[in-house]
Amino acid sequence: MPIWFTMDLDVEFDNERFGKPYGDKNPGVEKGIPLFLSIFKKFQVPATFHIQEQADVSASISLKYPQILEAIIKEPNHEIGLHIHFERGYDFDSREREIASGIRRLEEKYGKIVSFRAGKYFTNEDTIKILEKYGIKYDVSPYKNTSIGNKRWYDIPDSPYHPNYKDITKVGEAKILIIPIINKRLGIFVDNSIPLKLMKKGTNVLISESRKIEQPIIIFLSTHSWKCIDPKTDGFQRGYNSAF
């Protein structure tokens, strides 16, 4: 059976990663996204780019880097989704304000938005209700086998599921589809201490297993715009290297 490969990128201000104020220089966006686009074009990989759009216009990727979004939508296989970082303690109204402004800003120029990822993977019951209200079909925020905020994502399904309105970690009647991140369970999660060859080994295992089953295997790789650049040479300030 074939293996389907697709990519998902969070396109956010580099300073969001490091807890700094939003800055003028964002090598991850300015250099990382063009590099990713060239790689995707070469290997014909479709990707979803989740674009950070906060109610605060100073934290809008589309307003600061319209040329980046134009480059993305030029490729017919790519799509644009919404990415929002919620502050701690946000209530329903605060979340709706952020989501509504982000959707409106993106849809005015780039068409219907159907996919969402919360910054730091922090979605909840309020979030999915608001997303449904504004026509979002997919929430790709939950990160299996982690605890984020007051949510424990250990027992959620491995496969996409419709959540419960009262407990987003359970299967229920919600219309929105949650697509959990589960790459850690597959043994191919890569961080600073694990070499890339482990990811290749995990992928080879999937290729081998795909020959034994009837359904295709889908490899859905999620990353960030700044992951493909070298912080030592691409404009990061001193001290940022420790985050890579």
Query: What fraction of residues sit in β-strands?
Result: 15-25%
Question: CATH topology, which one?
Answer: TIM Barrel
Q: Helix amount, in percent?
A: 25-40%
Please outline the major beta sheet: 7 strands, parallel
The overall strand count is 9
| Annotated CATH architecture | Alpha-Beta Barrel
Weakly predicted, low-confidence segments: 184-190, 235-244
Output the radius of gyration.
Answer: 18 Å
What is the string of helix and strand elements? Answer: EHHEHHEHEHEEEEHE
Please tally the helical runs, counting DSSP H or I stretches of 4 or more residues: 7
CATH class: Alpha Beta
CATH superfamily: Glycoside hydrolase/deacetylase
Apparent shape: globular
Number of domains: 1
Strand order in the largest sheet: 8-5-4-3-2-1-9
Task: Give the CA-CA distance, first to last residue.
Answer: 36 Å
List keywords for this structure.
alpha/beta, TIM Barrel, 7 helices, 9 strands
How does the SSE layout of this entry go?
Elements: E1 3-11, H1 14-18, H2 27-43, E2 47-52, H3 61-64, H4 66-74, E3 79-84, H5 92-110, E4 115-118, H6 125-133, E5 138-139, E6 147-148, E7 151-152, E8 177-178, H7 196-210, E9 217-224
Parallel strand pairs: 1-2, 1-9, 2-3, 3-4, 4-5, 5-8
Antiparallel strand pairs: 6-7
Describe this protein's structure.
The chain is of the alpha/beta class and 244 residues long. It has a single domain, classed as TIM Barrel. It is built from 7 helices and 9 strands. The protein has helices at residues 14-18, 27-43, 61-64, 66-74, 92-110, 125-133, 196-210; strands at residues 3-11, 47-52, 79-84, 115-118, 138-139, 147-148, 151-152, 177-178, 217-224. The strands form 2 sheets. It has a 7-stranded parallel β-sheet with strand order 8-5-4-3-2-1-9. The protein has a two-stranded antiparallel sheet with strand order 6-7. It is globular and about 50 Å long. The two termini are 36 Å apart. Residues 184-190 and 235-244 have low confidence and may be disordered.
